[in-house]
Design goal:
- The protein is mainly alpha-helical and 571 residues long.
- A 3-stranded mixed β-sheet has the order 2-4-3.
- Helix 1 runs antiparallel to helix 3.
- It folds into 2 domains: 228 residues, no CATH class; 180 residues, no CATH class.
- It holds the Pfam family DUF885.
Length: 571
């Protein structure tokens, strides 16, 4: 356990930053994302003891925060916002830990095993010293995965089971990582870690290959245990979590104690609104189309598209570069280092959804967007434009890079570890809508793609809450009115109201079962951002300056949804 001694006169921001220092010592994956060099050769202890140490740090920090809030100066806006965030986040994290949720953390996205692999994609690899640290980190993979297995074994003892569907999906993903993902022996000859290490320097070839073989062997061992021991043990367990567990996870991902029934009703209201708008745009593309998704299917075949994986990477880079050029100085004021963002292709075996990784604290590693190709080489444009406004500019990149840029004025915690998923995803969805408001979606093709993406987020609210709480489908629904949600119905509904291919839909539903409460934060977070803007505009009247408001909003750091609207309205 790191030394967390402190001065009794510390202010909340100092307590928060001391927490960051102590936390990255326990979780060097987080340290690498922040760009802390000492972390690049290490992996966290994923065992129950390792997670207990993280919880102990959270409890001690909350006790120090109690004292910090009584220090003169703690009532300033910047200290108050930091204290609100730190208390809310640590309390939510402890609620999840104390319920032993970490003992059944199996999922196809963002789980501990994914974090171990993905950190290598942001670990520095420019020098021989960098690669020496990579080799050391590779040697740590077997222990990290063994610690993770220990967690799941303890979960089995306590009859705390992950869902069968996420478990089966992870087994398939691990086979892909092991180089055994394709049928009839045509997969990669080496595992993912071996492929990654093959780019290292010849001077370290033996060391890297040996470490990578051990890491790949750990992948196979974990895969076999999940397939042969864990999978049969959880067979028959429910994939859904129920209202009590869902409320706990919803608080964790949204930073708010949501009225889940009201949120479910809001999802349906957005569904009906968006369906009407989609029909208008679909009529422009394919007059008389039975549904908007028939028009989108036509675009899959006959719409604009990009051929080739590297070609789509370069095209997406152009989308972000053009957005920066158009928005900077007109709707945002961007620092030079915030203007840099890179488009990347996600490694094989990823989940289907695109994602973003933020820059390091010193911007030596830029923000990056990642596109999983899922084996495709042809990419329809309608499906990508608003998605890259979401992942890149003005979405995740502008928010998270701006946080890093102003971290010195906030706290490191507010700009990094304190991130609330619904705040960030809500901003990114708001960013898509902003680009529509500003006229960047110039034709029916890209606008229908944007509305389809918005519809996906509305459907997420409906099915994520609906299936986990086993709610009734409303009487005015065009889909199975009066029945109660199940994962099977959720997948059917999602697939029939989305342009996404079947493998994407299946991956999405597994994601919702794996991380309950996270997927609703996009639409509910967007609602919070819109409400905050509306209240700020009403307060300022004709003097409201949207550019100034955007920059102030992006410079206040993370907040949960309970606090976000209040703080946005003050700006």
């Amino acid at each position: 356990m790191p030394d967390t001694s402190h001065s009794p006169s510390q202010l909340p921001r100092q307590v928060a930053d001391a927490f960051v220092d102590a936390h990255v010592a326990l979780d060097p994956v987080e340290g690498t994302y922040l760009g802390v060099p000492e972390c690049h050769s290490k992996l966290p202890d994923l065992s129950p003891a390792g997670l207990d140490a993280v919880a102990e740090l959270a409890r001690a920090t909350l006790a120090r925060l109690d004292a910090a809030e009584r220090v003169p100066g703690a009532d300033s806006d910047v200290e108050r916002r930091c204290a609100r965030l730190l208390r809310e986040r640590l309390t939510a994290q402890l609620a999840v830990h104390d319920a032993d949720e970490h003992l059944r953390a199996v999922g196809n996205l963002g789980s501990p095993i994914h974090q171990v692999r993905e950190v290598f994609t942001v670990t520095p690899t420019e020098t021989d010293d960098d690669w020496s640290a990579v080799a050391q980190r590779l040697r740590a993979v077997p222990a990290a995965y063994a610690g993770y297995r220990e967690r799941l074994e303890l979960g089995l003892e306590r009859k705390l089971f992950a869902g069968p569907r996420p478990t089966a999906t992870v087994v398939t993903q691990l086979s892909e990582w092991a180089g055994q993902g394709q049928a009839q022996g045509q997969g990669r000859q080496r595992g993912w870690f071996g492929e990654f290490a093959s780019a290292g320097p010849d001077a370290l070839r033996g060391e890297l290959d040996e470490a990578a073989r051990a890491a790949d062997a750990a992948v196979v061992a974990l895969r076999d245990w999940l397939r042969d021991v864990y999978g049969p043990a959880v067979e028959g367990a429910p994939d859904v979590v129920g209202r009590e567990r869902y409320a706990r996870w919803s608080r964790y991902y949204n930073g708010a104690d949501l009225d889940l029934d009201e949120a479910y009703a809001y999802g349906w209201s957005e569904f009906h609104r968006l369906l009407g708008e989609m029909r208008v745009e679909a009529e422009k593309i394919l007059p008389g189309a039975k549904t908007p998704w028939v028009a989108l299917a036509r675009l899959d075949e006959h719409g604009r598209h990009i051929e080739g994986v590297d070609e789509v990477r370069r095209w997406l880079q152009g989308v972000m570069d053009e957005a920066i050029a158009a928005l900077d100085g007109t709707h945002f004021e961007l620092a030079e280092r915030v203007r840099k963002v890179e488009s990347c292709i996600a490694p094989p075996g990823s989940a289907a959804a695109p994602y973003y990784t933020p820059p390091s604290e010193d911007f030596s590693r830029p923000g990056r967007t990642w596109l999983p190709t899922m084996g495709q080489t042809r990419f329809p444009v309608y499906d990508l434009v608003s998605t890259w406004y979401h992942e890149g500019v003005p979405g995740h990149h502008l928010q998270l890079a701006q946080w890093a840029h102003v971290a010195g004025d906030l706290s490191r915690y507010q700009a990094s570890l304190g991130i609330v998923s619904a705040n960030a995803e809500g901003w990114a969805l708001y960013a898509e809508r902003l680009m529509d408001e500003l006229g960047f979606l110039k034709d029916a093709e890209t606008r229908l793609g944007y509305l389809d993406a918005q519809m996906m987020r509305a459907c997420r609210v409906i099915v994520d809450i609906g299936m986990h709480l086993e709610l009734e489908i409303p009487a005015d629904s065009p889909f199975h009115p009066g029945e109660r949600w199940t994962p099977r119905l959720a997948q059917e509904f999602f697939g029939s109201h989305s342009s996404r291919p079947a493998d994407f839909v299946e991956s999405e539903l597994t994601r919702y079962l794996s991380i309950p409460g996270q997927a609703i934060g996009y639409k509910l977070g967007e609602r919070a951002w819109l409400l905050g803007r509306e209240r700020a505009r009403a307060a300022h009247g004709a003097s409201f300056d949207a550019k100034a408001w955007h920059m102030a909003a992006l410079s206040q750091g993370s907040l949960g949804l309970d606090d976000l609207v209040d703080e946005l309205a003050r700006l």
